[in-house]
Amino acid sequence: MLSSYQLDLLSNLGINILLALSVYCPMATGQLSIGNAGFMALGGYTSAILTVHLHFPLFPALITGGIVAGIIGVLVGFPALRLKGIFLAMATLAFGEIVRNFFMNFLKPLTGGAYGFRGIGDTPISIIWIWGWVLFFLLFFFFLSRSRTGLAMLAIHDDETVSELIGIHSVLLKVGAFGTGAFIAGVGGGLYAHYYLYIEPEFFNVWESIHMVLYVIMGGMLTFWGAVLGASIFTLVPEFTRILQDWRGAFFGVVIIGLMILRPSGIVTRDMLRMDFWRPHRKETES
Amino acid sequence: MFIQQIFNGIMLGSTYALIAIAFTILMGILNMLNFAIGEIFMLGAIYGLTFVNLGLPFYLAVPLAMVCTGITCLIVERFSFRPLRNAPPLVPLVSTIGFSILFQNTAVNFFGSERSQFPQWIEPVNLYIGPVLISSTQIITLSLAVLLMVALDLFIQRTRLGRGMRSVAESLDTASILGVDSNLIILMTFFFSGALAGAAGIIFGISFSIVSPFMGMEPGIKGIAAMIVGGMGNLRGAIVGGMFIGIIEVLSVAYFGSSARDFAVYGLLFLALLIRPQGILGVLQPERERI
User: Fold this and answer.
1) How many domains does chain B have?
2) Packed helices B160-170 and B136-158: angle between N→C axes, nearest 10 degrees
3) Which structural domain range is residue B162 located in?
4) Is the residue at B290 inside a domain?
5) Between chains, do A91 and B90 touch, taking CB under 8 Å as contact?
6) CA-based nearest distance A183→chain B, Å
7) pLDDT for B6-23, tens place per residue?
8) ipTM computed for the complex
9) pTM summary value
10) Mapping DSSP to helix (H, G, I), strand (E, B) and coil, where does residue B211 land?
11) What residues of B are in contact with residue A256 (Cβ under 8 Å)?
12) What radius of gyration do chain B's Cα atoms show?
């Protein structure tokens, strides 16, 4: 039987994996988002408002939170198509801050504003909920990575111009990936709100978004396993380095710097997964 | 009242402009976004305060702190730029995020997480210039900021090394072939960037009486915003962008309350990126003429 500390750690891990996947999804098409804490906040607040004030059951509330985040993700994703690299990163960062300030200043009667959203708790969730969602999205990405769509996303990531030349609908895929990422972040935010039973706008600040990006880049941004591994390492390693006490944060920084020098494309790379023993052997019949 | 607010905006904006220049020279010359500049800004204030508390007069503490932050920025170069020159641009960015985590946590461990402030070093005298109230501290910090900006601009436009920096901005390889010592130029760029960020930290610390290990994040992001609004990689644009963001911030607080501040600044950044990704000055500036 797991202790409550271990259960907490595992729940935290599950939520972090979801958040890492939410960053991985747009990044798989070459879009860096440093605003996913904003989508997480949208999902968290929407679902919490639904369960607390409108007495929704948990599952529809989570889905609605995810959908709200996803729709806003698509709305942001369209104009963001014009932007690349650091410009896109800054636009998403600004978006995340706008959302945080929105919940700080508006809807105060419903959410408590800067004082935090109390009273979530009619429908607390167990670890099974979280890992159920993690499993669902892992399967989703597993099948996506084996599908034509997954290949098309990979092609856009590697070279957008060429992939458009061979007939890949890059606008649809990029906006879709951005929206899907926002949906996952929204669900993650809903789970976060209903697991910890308390949220405040300050939770969803820039550092939260940056951490999500770090999970993916550390783990390896080219496969979804990288996101999972990155989230796991950065959730579990700080727990095992408690001996370092005050220097844990500094150590975390040194690990990032070192990893970028040693493995600039992350821990899990595409080459590593090329020894794909679980895949059926490719037929060479297509000419 | 309005003119006073504009002046306050320029005061705040001069800090943002210095940070934006620190970002801009790295972006324009080496095409690198150094995320750690926000924390180097914070370290500048902390070094400065430490030197002042050790008994150094201000006119020594400020340049000394600038040299220290310049050297700190060279450490960033050694680990985040030099080994990663051929990596995709995201990798150095993430590496500098690692540095900002490292700097912030180290500062908390040595300095403590509490706020402190610079001691008063001159008699505060308030002057009225027309309707505008200016304190003696403001005059000194503002003129320091302007002096640094003008000096850097002259250095880049007029000196031999400055010409080297401009040529590296055009193309690092070509500049090397033509005999520019590109390694020296890179080190110099990082040093200037760190020194300016450090100076901005001290000016901010003196003007707003705050020195804390957590002071770097927000001005850092606003510095990036100023760089983008002013047209990426353009020194004079960064100055205008910094002033613009400072004035917008002060005016939105003055007329719509403090909760409007971040809305205004980040909303502006978001819109600026969506509508004019090339920045306000991007069009006025010829395409090739970076820095």
Assistant:
1) 1
2) 70
3) 2-116+129-275
4) no
5) no
6) 21
7) 888 998 999 999 999 999
8) 0.85
9) 0.88
10) strand
11) 94-95, 97-98, 101
12) 19
